[in-house]
User: Fold these one by one.
Assistant:
Number 1:
Amino acid sequence: MGEKTQCCGRKWCVSDPCGIVCAVITWLLIMYSQFVVFLVLIHSYEEHWFHTGINFVLFELLTALALISHVKTMLTDPGSVPKGNATEEHIERLQAAEEFKVIYKCQKCCSIKPDRAHHCSVCDRCIRRMDHHCPWVNNCVGEANQKYFVLFTMYIALLSFHALYWGIWQFVLCVGKEWHSCSNLGPPGTTLMLIFLMFEAILFAIFTSVMFGTQLSAICSDETAIETLKRISEHALMPGLVVERFDKDGLAAEYLHGLREHKNDKQNYICQVMKQAGMLCHNQRWWSAVKVTNVSGTNVYVVLRAPRATGVEAMVFAVDLHQREATAMVMAYAAFARQQIYWARDIFFVFVDGGAPGMDAWLSQYHLIRHSALHADPLPEMGGVIIGAVAMKGGPDWHMLVPLRAMYTQAFVAVEGLHSVMGKYGVQAITVAVPPLNTYPLRKSTRLLEAIARALNNVLERFHQSYFLYILASPDNFVSIAYFMPIIGGILAPLLIFAYRDWTNLTEIFVPRSLFVMHAIGLLTWCLSSTYFTDLTSNPRADVMYLGISMLIPWGLLLPP
């Protein structure tokens, strides 16, 4: 990833899979607009030749300019620093030329970093005046190609606004003529294509207009996006920038053995161990207020008071009490965190009994909110505003299953896990799936937890929205949206194709067999999602089988009825 190759006669091309996919999608969307123009919009030329001719010329001109600027942005060196020039001889020559000059060396690409240069992990190079890495152009936006990127966003914004105007005009024309001679397609096909074109135009008009305005603001202020972020939160410490020091994996193994021995009395065992570590520990009973659903449980929560704060803010680490490995890991980290003195926020370690309802009961009492469906004991120990929460859970030994399960539960299940109930209390949360101990070292998993905790401990840090564009497939691997979106497209594509085929045959008086098949698939998907995919202790091999069936069934709808 990030390797340079010869492409179209140019010496710069980033071979990043995510960027290549996004660049291809950009071209396909522009080609779709051309398809609509020649199939639908230009059909009104005979009756409105002047209006259609002007719009056609303007549309084609903007399309050509947008494509050219996109290629120029993608294949232009953004201002890369020569790789491997940080040799001792070169450094000595620079120091001899300017005696008191501070020379910065990039350890990742072994180059001398000029002022205002930043290292891009995707391009694997230091870029002069790097603004950001844009996957839609598969390149960094830097000193040498920023002007092309500004032109690209401007042309796409103008093209989107023009497509929106022309699409609405054509739609009104077709309705006025009762869909006679306004398109090469029938009314359903014309309507579908115009609606999708207008939706695409609105989406990209908003996105590119914001990007164009952001770039103009950066040019006027002579400040890149990275420099702006540093100015806003220069003390922010993200997980990848801290040095993790957790070394109590032996203690975690001891706690795991104790949880297995006290499987019928986990709450008292956890409190006993945490009190010995010098922390406050309490039990909280909760039960359902509805007699029909007879559910109840006993939560355990441990409080670590920050030595450098007044308790105004807090962070929460929650784990299902019945997930022994994840529980032992959180217990070991709590004991380790107790020995540190750098905490600026209180930490609540919540061991939840009963899944999402148990988490809901604890949060309702923490925020002093009366729950209509749950009763719970009050909390003896309280804290400040929860600025972030992390839900730990046991993960399967199938890395690709983690994002697939996440997509299924997000699409079809109201409550995905412990983090699902936190949103209604205004708490931003993420879930971290911990692989089994026999496949991944416990120390490395716990150090990821330590990195997140230390990041949230910073007084300026919050969970950034970019967390929700990625899936943490493993403790050291974030999966970009560009990787799991094609999977979603593969699931939805046959459904959309079949729906369009049935829509064009609305005049036929019969109920297609596919209608019952689609209802059956919907019922099957709902049953699997609401029962199986929310079971955190399910068999990974069975998960793969069910997911494979669920992904293949929609393509069967394309068979003739």
Number 2:
Amino acid sequence: FCDFLTHDSITPDCFAAKEASEISKNTTAYCPLCTVLEHRWAGLSRNVAEELSPPPSSQYSVPLWGCQVAHGGALLGDASEAPKLRAIWNALSANAQVNRQAIPAMGRICCNTTDATTAACEILPVCAVVGGMLVQDVLKVLAARDSPIVNFFVFNGSTGGGTVCRMDIPQLFI
């Protein structure tokens, strides 16, 4: 994840006369990652949750990061660590006000012994997939030509699937 906070780009001025090719500065303000992770999912219904795979609040990598922080930077590599991984996911779910009826089995799915055993192998493939998807957007940012994306992408390395959630972020134009 990359915290842009604010990003300046240039865009063609659609209100300028046709013969004048004016450009205008566009400033987009983004919320920081910590704000995104603190989003509340209290209104998530069962129908909406079934359409999102993986569910947004599970944030598959976030419990892994939590365990990594708790272990002084070391990633998990032992099946006996699964209860710690599950406890972190439960704490994140409770904090995000996830409706347990909407996603009843998510804690068992994302925090099993396989996840605890393969956690050390999980981060790099996720980074590769996300990096590959974002390279075009990074080029747009560096060129200051267009605004960066405003989506939050969650990738589940165990299934090879992911979810893109459009974040409702107000844009400021200067």
Number 3:
Amino acid sequence: MKHGCQTVNSDSATCLSSKAPSVIIDNVVQFSVILIITLITSVNLIEFRNVAIKLTYTYMEIIVIYTSIREKSILG
């Protein structure tokens, strides 16, 4: 899937400065889908937990970056 960025991983945070909140919505949807697929395909719950924690941290970083960019644009 491409959403204005070449890849949907850590690079997606860098394109938030040029994209609208639709990128965040896309990321939320993708995050949920990836989490569900990971749960289904995980060999055991410990493996799923480790992957889910990594995904959650990445997702939170994206939100923090987006929020800081938005605050800068609001405050000027």
